[in-house]
Amino acid sequence: MAASLGEVLHRRFASTGKSVSVLGLGTVKFGRNQGVKYPEGDGFSLPTDQEISALLDLCLERGINLIDTAPAYGTSEERLGKLLGKRRKDFFIVTKTGEEFTNGKSSYNFSAEHTRMSIDRSLQRLKTNYLDCVLVHASKNDLEVINQTPVLETLAQFKQEGKILSFGVSANTAEGGKRAVDLTDAVMVSYNKTYPAEKKVIDYAHEHGKAVLVKKGLASGHVNTLGGLEENIRFILETPGVTSLVFGSLSAANILNNIKAARNIQ
C-alpha cells in the first residue's frame, strides 16, 4: 500500500523480522559540527536536547522509525541514549564501528579488540541492551577491510550473542558493496540520479534478499543540484531492492517535505 501524507511506508529489514521506514533519519548533526558536507558547512550550532526530542517525536508521529548514528558522529550516540527513553523500543537503531573522529580528523581501526570495545561502548552510550544493525564504517579501501580484517567475524559473534540483530557494511565501492552482500545482512551504498555506479550493488542485494540503505541520496543536502526533491526521492525509493534512504536534518519542515515527497511510493 502506498504511504499517504503524514505516513511513511515500511519495508522488511533483512533477516531481523522487523520493518523499517523507507526514510531514515541520519544524526551526524546531532553531535558533530566539524567536517560535515552540508550546505551550512562547519561551525553550525548543535541542536538542544529539546530540539532533538521534538524531532524524534515528529519522526515517530509520521512513521519514521529508522535512526542512523555512529561513533564518528561526535556526541550523537550519547545524546540519543539520553533522550530516547521509552521511545527506544519504537526505533530501529543503526550504528557503526571502525571510524573514530577526534580533533577534526577521522581514523580507522577494524581490529577485533577495537570492534568489541566499540560495540560495548555504543550499547552503553545508547542505553540499550541490543542494537538493531551495526555497519562497518569502512574506509575507502573497503574490500581490503572486508577481506583482510576480523571486523565482520567479530560482529558475527555479537550477533550470535544477541547483542546485535544484524550487521553489514557502509561501503565505498561497488566491489566492496557486493562482497558485503555475500557476507552480511545489509549494505549501505551511495546512490542518486547523478551517481548510479553502485546500483549494481543494490541489484545484487535485491537478488540475495539483503537490506540496502542509501546514503548521499540527496547529495548531502545539495539536492537542488540533482533536480526536484520529490523526483530524487522517488528515483531512489522506487529502485527495486532499496530498503531505506537515510537523510540528515535538524529541520522539522525539511523532514515533513521529505515525507511528503515519498507519499506515493509503492
Please give a structural write-up.
There is one protein chain. This protein has 266 residues and is an alpha/beta fold. The protein has a single domain (10-261), classed as Alpha-Beta Barrel (TIM Barrel), CATH 3.20.20. It has helices at residues 28-31, 49-62, 76-84, 112-125, 142-148, 151-160, 174-183, 199-208, 229-237, 252-261; strands spanning 10-12, 19-21, 23-26, 66-68, 92-97, 99-102, 105-108, 133-137, 167-170, 186-190, 211-215, 244-248. The protein has an 8-stranded parallel beta barrel, surrounded by 5 helices. Helix 4 (112-125) packs across helix 6.
Task: Please name the defining characteristics of this protein.
two-stranded antiparallel ribbon, 266 residues, TIM Barrel, 19% strand, disordered N terminus, 8-stranded parallel β-barrel, 10 helices, alpha/beta
* Outline type: globular
Q: SS-based structural class?
A: alpha/beta
Which regions have little confidence, pLDDT < 50, spanning 5+ residues?
Answer: 1-6
The H-level CATH homologous superfamily, spelled out, is NADP-dependent oxidoreductase domain
CATH architecture: Alpha-Beta Barrel
Strand-and-helix sequence, N→C? EEEHHEHEEEHEHHEHEHEHEH
Number of domains: 1
What is the rounded Rg?
17 Å
- By CATH reckoning, the class would read Alpha Beta
